Amino acid sequence: MDAIIIVLIILVVLVFIALIKTIQVIPQASAAIVERFGRYTRTLNAGLNIVVPFIDTVRNRVDLREQVVPFPPQPVITQDNLVVNIDTVIYYQVTDARAATYEVASYIQAIEQLTVTTLRNIIGGMDLERTLTSREEINAALRGVLDEATGKWGIRVNRVELKAIEPPTSIQDSMEKQMRADRDKRAAILQAEGVRQSQILTAEGEKQSAILRAEGESRSAALRAEGEAQAIRTVFESIHAGDPDQKLLSYQYLQMLPKIAEGDANKLWIVPSEIGDALKGLGGALDNFRPDSGGNGANRGGTPTPPSVPKPPREQPPLDS
Fold first, then answer.
1. What φ, ψ does residue 134 adopt, rounded to 5°?
2. Are 108 and 69 in contact (CB under 8 A)?
3. Sheet harboring 30-36: ordered strands across?
4. What is the spatial distance between Cα 267 and Cα 58, in angstroms, rounded to a whole number?
5. CA torsion through residues 279, 280, 285, 286, sign
6. Which of 111-120, 164-173, 299-308 has the lowest mean pLDDT?
7. If you write DSSP's letter for every residue of 68-104 in order, what string do you get?
8. What is the distance between the alpha carbons of residues 51 and 22, in angstroms, rounded to a whole number?
9. How far apart are CA 314 and CA 83, in angstroms?
10. Can you tell me the distance from the alpha carbon of 48 to that of 24, in angstroms, rounded to the nearest whole number?
11. pLDDT (0 to 100) of residue 131
C-alpha cells in the first residue's frame, strides 16, 4: 500500500514537471530558440507556447528590443601620426533570433571588434583637424560598414555615435592656445571696428552740427542785416518826413564827436573838413538865441536894433589826442 502511494506521488510530480516544461510563456519583445535533440526546431514568439517535454529544449531567450552598448576608448592613429582616443556607442537591435544564436558566438564582442577595426580604417585616412570636425561623416561610414557586416548575424545597427575624441595632451594645449589667440584676434578686430564706427559717427555728428550751426549763423546774420536795413530805412524815412534843417544836423554831428574819441586804443583821430560847416551852422543857431540878437526883431527895451553879423568861426585844426 505504501509503495503504491509513493508511486502515485512520483507520477504526480512527473506530471507537474511535464506540464511546466510543456507550457512556455514568452514575454513581449522577446523570442526563444527551441532545439529538439540538439537541433534547431523553431522560434517561440511572445505569448503562450506548447513544447514537447523532455524532448524539446528552450536553449536561448533573445531580447528583441533596441540595445545600447558603450565601448571603452580605443586608441586610433590619424593620417598625421597622432594618437587619439575615441569613445563609441552602438545602438543595435536583434531582428533574427536564430541567426543571432547560431551565426555568431558572441555578437556583442563581434560588434565591438568590428567597430574598432572600422574606426582605425576610417580615421587612418583623416588628419586630426578633419577627425575633430567630421563626426557625422565618421558616424555614417561606421554605420554603413557595421550594418552590412552584422546583417547576416540577424542584427541591425541603427546608430553609431562618437561620444568623445580626445587628442594628446600636448595637442590639446596647442589647440587651446590657438583658440585663445583666435579669440583675442577677433576681440581686437571687433574693438577696432567699434572705435572706427564710433569715430565715424562722431565725425558725422560734428559735420552735421557744423552745418546746422553755419546755417543758423547764416540765417541769423541775414535776419540781423534785414533788421538793420529796416531800421536804417525807417530812420531815413523819418528824417525825410521831419525835413530837418542844417542846424539840427550840425548839432547831431557835434554829439557824435565824443563817441569817435572813445576807447583806449584811439591814439589819433582826425576831424573831417565838414566840421567847419557844422560849426558855422551851430554858431548861427546860437546867435538867434542871444538876448541882444535880432532874432526876434527887438531888444529888451523894445527898440529895434540892427541885426548883428555873426563872425565866421575859425576852422578847427586836426586834434591830436
1. -125, 45
2. yes
3. 39-44, 30-36, 56-63
4. 135
5. positive
6. 299-308
7. EEEEEEEEEE-TTS-EEEEEEEEEEEES-HHHHHHT-
8. 5
9. 121
10. 6
11. 85
pLDDT, tens only, 251-263: 666 666 666 666 5
Cβ atoms of 271 and 318 within 8 Å: the answer is yes
Mean pLDDT, residues 275-294: 55
Q: Nearest 5°: CA angle at 59, between 53 and 61?
A: 115
> How many whole angstroms from its chain centre is CA 23?
70
Closest by alpha carbon to 46, among 61, 31, 24? 31
CB neighbour burial string for 72-93, b if at least 16 within 10 angstroms, e if fewer: eebebebeeebebebebebebe
pLDDT at position 307 over 60? no
CA angle 53, 54, 59 (to 5 degrees): 90
Distance CA 173, CA 78 (A): 18
91 phi/psi in degrees, rounded to 5: -110, 115
- Sorted by sequence, the CB contacts under 8 Å of residue 274 that are 6+ apart come out as 253
